[in-house]
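Q: I'm writing up a methods section and want to include an example of the input and output format. Could you take the sequence below and give the corresponding predicted structure tokens, formatted cleanly so I can copy it straight into the document?
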Amino acid sequence: MSTNRGSLLRQTLDIVTTCAVLAAAGVVLWNALGPKPSAARATVAVPRERLVLDDVQTTGLASATVAMIAFSDFECPYCGKFARETWPAVNKEYVSSGLLQVGFRHLPLPSHANATRAAEAATCSGRQGAFWRMHDELFSLPKALDDEGITRHAKKIGVNLGAFETCMNGDGLGDVERDAGLAKTLGIAGTPTFFVGKKTDDSHVRIDTVISGSQPIGEFRAAIDRSLGRRP
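A: Here is the clean output for your methods example:
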């Protein structure tokens, strides 16, 4: 009887072990082959018309021959991932070297309660020449985007608080709504979305590539190099 019990126990353990192995294998396959999270899953077509830069907050030399325009949301985790992990490399390799000019447009998503106010804060900081300082500040602390947090950010970057608050209670929203309207025209459904192309003059860009979501740095290098005319 004890021999039969031992045999049954071994069979049971074998079955449990096999199930555990199969489950682990399933997890590995899902991670490798399953859908990857993306903030902008929908494919956005390359626009036929040139995009403009003269009403956009930009960084980089105006003499750069290639531009990238980002549509972003300060409360979007994928946008934050790009800003903290990928943007520094793009900035160092292409913007600081004078090859790339980058423009930022707002697309606060309805599901993000504080995104619009954060976008207004960046816009109002931009009125004082501090857009990119506020950009970095907002993305560095994505959980502090309520009005109290925004005021702390404004104090930290050193803008004139009176002028900042007047803008926040006035026409700062207009620029945000304009950008969101353009995003709708371009068929953008998620953030971040990036348009990369060759500049045809100081304020217009002929788009070559659209990048959806926070992609690896290699994808940005490939798109920018393509517009620069570099061979792979």
